[in-house]
Amino acid sequence: MARLAGSGLYDDYVVYERPGSYTFAGGVLGEVVLDAGEVRTRWPDTGTASAPWSGRPADVLREAFAASPLPVWNAYGWIAFEFAAPRPAGRLAHLVVPRAEVRVADGLARVTAAGPGEAGRLAGLIAGTGAAAPAEPAPVDVRVGAAEYKPRVARAVADIEAGAYQKIIVSRRLDVPFPVDVVATYVRGRAANNPARSFLLDLAGFQATGFSPEVLASVDAAGRVMTQPLAGTRAFGLGRDTDARTRHELETDPKEIFEHAVSVRTSQDELYGICARDTVRVTGFMTVKERGSVQHLGSSVSGTLAPGRTAWDALDALFPGVTASGIPKPEAIEAVTRLDEPRGLYAGAVAALSHDGSFDSALVLRALYKEDGRAWLRAGAGIVSGSTPDREYEETCEKLASIAPHVVPLP
């Protein structure tokens, strides 16, 4: 995947990893770009069109793809956290139907491409020798910014105690003080993480790579939908004895258990709104998931879409992830816009979707972002009534350690 992404064949690309498979989507055959004031589409033969929009953003994306002249398509891209904001601003989504796809699974690569010669060039890259080992990383210091972050946590706790909401995720941005090689960072970071999904993308000059700890929404062509809330965190990778101790703390801490339970309940309620009620199930309740430098309490919530419902309804119901926004969601999202600076892709989603109605999306956490020559990391912590600023700051440091040690400078 790194060889394909770094080949220079395509200015725009998305790499998306699911269990057992990787996909490289290169170039742009079709495109849907959603901004706060306008939706823009580009399709073969029909060209580029733009229009103002109103209503639910998920419905705008649904209509844009329904108008595609392509009978068969797959699309890949990203959705910003502000997609769900009451007063959205900036770019909200960028999804492309690629010119070429390389899917790798079970040791085999399948190549499809729109243009003559493209498939051959891609096959040559796949068959070539392995890419050179990426340069050594330059670890980014995560223990900065406490004086700015902790007061915001305290304000959130005060809001919770006043009854404004039950839970909110307060995050902090960490700027990287040197130019970054995003592709090499993906290689280094993926070797050190075991994500639910991973991704690497460059669309219109915006680059990102990350190791998502949880599935936001996955819908198959038969309408089976699944989400995977993870909430409750302790450090991991500090040695067998320390990991066992922190795991025990995680499984027995009342604050962590409460944080997880209310997140699962919210996900369940969201699926009740779009699924046949008797199909909604919680499985693997509070199973510990090891994700890079941290371990979480995790559960899976699933169901079957009710008649007339589609993957777009699942996106609308589940986005943004409860574990990256808060409870109740509307109040928490509004509070995030006051307590955090604009998030963009952080706590949004990277998604893969298809003409057959299937949809898969990763919650964007444990990621690096780069635009206009500047790179940054971001992490947050779930704030509930039992939270303390010191512990929540420590949790952001633990999460940032999933990627901060693996950031590779440009040569």
From TrEMBL:
Cofactor(s) needed: Mg(2+)
Q: Which UniProt keywords apply?
A: Lyase, Magnesium, Metal-binding
What is the residue range of the signal peptide feature? none
Q: Which Gene3D superfamilies match?
A: Anthranilate synthase
Segments forming domain Chorismate-utilising enzyme C-terminal: 147-399
What InterPro entries is this protein classified in? ADC_synthase, Anth_synth_I-like, Chorismate_C, Salicylate_synthase
Does the UniProt entry include the keyword Nucleotide-binding? no
Q: Record's PANTHER family? A: AMINOBENZOATE/ANTHRANILATE SYNTHASE, ISOCHORISMATE SYNTHASE MENF
In its UniProt entry, what is this protein called? Salicylate synthase
Question: Which species does this protein come from?
Answer: Actinomadura graeca
